[in-house]
């Protein structure tokens, strides 16, 4: 007897093949696929040097006079951390990138990374949800750009197999082996009936990508997702002991603008009837905070309860500890606000605590630490809080608070800088300790990036760097929203 799973995938495979046959091939010359490496590169290591590189989305960037066409800057890691002298600027006017820069494409609204073709170099997925495709306004597109020893170059489009029933394809992105077949897949969020779509691996530099599947989370019986907001954020991670990569999916509940967050399983085609709900929020991160070998989940919700019943005064972060079967129901989730004992500051309306979260090991002790952005703090000047992991879980003792007024941090805190709009903990230097990268999307009206080194004592401001869009070749015309997106 054919299982429902196999039958569903067979149907998807046939449908995808028919759709692929109808697509007009892109005129793009691509290098022959490299031989598969024994070990795939870790995400965002585009040049295979063992260090994490940084992708910076500027979806509001003007390109070739086209307002809000969008751009992505990639700054490569080095022994001293991020090295702005080694960088790549990517737009739809970049040679080898499909399409052309057009007004309101919003290229760079989302990014994700994986070694899609297992050649030892991570590849970069970029979403342009405002792209018009075959006369369909805001249909959206996703491109894969290939890593190599010299960095990123060459690209291909990833098809949307449900384009008739979705829009803004690529407004959220993630990558991983979602269906457990050993190949890396790409997932893209959008709006409309089919709000979550996947392109099945293997995803290679050439050849037909003829298999994929889609889901309608708007069809969920318990907490249906709003089809108009769609899937706004995706986080991928092996959240159970089986190592199977699942998706943390963020959207708004139908009929409201309130957050809804759930775990979706690609083994059952992200079926809306089998979602596992998490604390509701707008962003998330995964990592092993307590070193028990199971992945924990941090969910950020920056909104007030007056705007979202799942929020809190000044915003909050909820940590869900993991176990062998995923979220551990035997452990009470940890809720953090700026009124939590040990957390710097105080909860005030508009702080936006939880506007972004990231997990990584800052001090090299083997436990994932948590960075929390509060981009509304002090009239929108913004702040970042770092809390440290331990064998017993996340600690509030020894927490750090950082702003542009912290000694050693470049710049000065000003209203509406929105320092902490995005945060990232990742090892750009290869020293096994994560750097803290922060964006302030309102800095000088354009946005800017800060990178602070990790040390055994925590985040250190010694040797901190900061740079804006001009450093990486992004135009400041019209407000590029530089740093609106960092490595997902």
From TrEMBL:
Keywords, sorted A to Z: Glycoprotein, Hydrolase, Repeat, Signal
InterPro entries hit by this protein: FG-GAP, Int_alpha_beta-p, Integrin_alpha_N
PROSITE patterns, A to Z: FG_GAP
Coiled-coil portions: none
Secretion signal, residue range per the UniProt entry: 1-37
Any GO molecular function: hydrolase activity
Keyword Lipoprotein assigned: no
UniProt-listed Pfam families: FG-GAP
Gene3D superfamilies: Integrin alpha, N-terminal
UniProt superkingdom: Bacteria
Protein name, per record: VCBS repeat-containing protein
Species annotation: Streptomyces cyaneochromogenes
């Amino acid at each position: 007897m054919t299982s429902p799973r196999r039958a569903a995938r067979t149907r998807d495979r046939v449908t995808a093949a028919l759709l692929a046959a109808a697509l007009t091939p892109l005129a793009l010359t691509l290098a022959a696929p490299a031989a598969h490496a024994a070990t795939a590169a870790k995400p965002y290591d585009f040049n295979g040097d063992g260090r994490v590189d940084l992708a910076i989305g500027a979806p509001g960037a003007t390109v070739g006079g086209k307002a809000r066409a969008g751009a992505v800057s990639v700054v490569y890691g080095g022994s001293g951390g991020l090295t702005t002298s080694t960088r790549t600027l990517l737009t739809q006017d970049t040679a080898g990138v499909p399409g052309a820069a057009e007004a309101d494409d919003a290229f760079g609204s989302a990014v994700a990374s994986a070694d899609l073709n297992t050649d030892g170099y991570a590849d970069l997925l970029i979403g342009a949800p405002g792209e018009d495709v075959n006369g369909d306004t805001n249909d959206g597109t996703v491109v894969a750009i290939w890593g190599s020893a010299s960095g990123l170059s060459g690209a291909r489009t990833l098809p949307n197999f449900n384009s008739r029933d979705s829009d803004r394809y690529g407004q959220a992105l993630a990558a991983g082996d979602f269906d457990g077949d050993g190949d890396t897949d790409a997932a893209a969020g959008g709006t409309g009936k089919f709000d979550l779509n996947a392109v099945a691996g293997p995803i290679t530099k050439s050849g037909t990508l003829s298999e994929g599947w889609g889901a309608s989370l708007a069809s969920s019986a318990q907490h249906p997702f709003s089809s108009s907001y769609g899937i706004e954020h995706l986080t991928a991670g092996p959240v159970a002991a089986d190592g199977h990569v699942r998706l943390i999916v963020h959207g708004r509940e139908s009929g409201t603008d309130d957050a809804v967050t759930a775990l979706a399983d690609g083994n059952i085609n992200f079926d809306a009837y089998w979602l596992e709900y998490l604390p509701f929020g707008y962003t998330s991160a995964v990592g092993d905070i307590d070193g028990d070998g199971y992945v924990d989940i941090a969910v950020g919700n920056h909104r007030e309860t007056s705007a979202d019943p799942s929020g809190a005064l000044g915003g909050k972060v909820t940590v869900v500890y993991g176990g062998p079967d995923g979220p551990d129901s035997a452990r009470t989730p940890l809720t953090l606000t700026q009124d939590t004992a040990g957390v710097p500051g105080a909860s005030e309306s508009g702080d936006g605590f939880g506007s972004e979260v990231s997990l990584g090991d800052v001090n090299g002790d083997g436990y994932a630490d948590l960075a929390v952005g509060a981009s509304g703090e002090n009239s929108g000047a913004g702040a970042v809080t770092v809390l440290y992991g331990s064998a017993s879980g996340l600690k509030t003792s020894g927490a750090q608070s950082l702003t542009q007024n912290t000694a050693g941090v470049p710049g000065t805190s000003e209203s509406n800088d929105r320092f902490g709009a995005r945060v990232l903990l990742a090892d750009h230097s290869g020293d096994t300790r994560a750097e803290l990268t922060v964006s302030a999307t309102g800095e000088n009206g354009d946005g800017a990036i800060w990178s602070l080194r990790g040390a055994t004592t925590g985040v250190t401001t010694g040797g901190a760097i900061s740079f804006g869009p001009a450093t990486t070749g992004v135009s400041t015309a019209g407000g590029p929203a530089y740093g609106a997106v960092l490595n997902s």
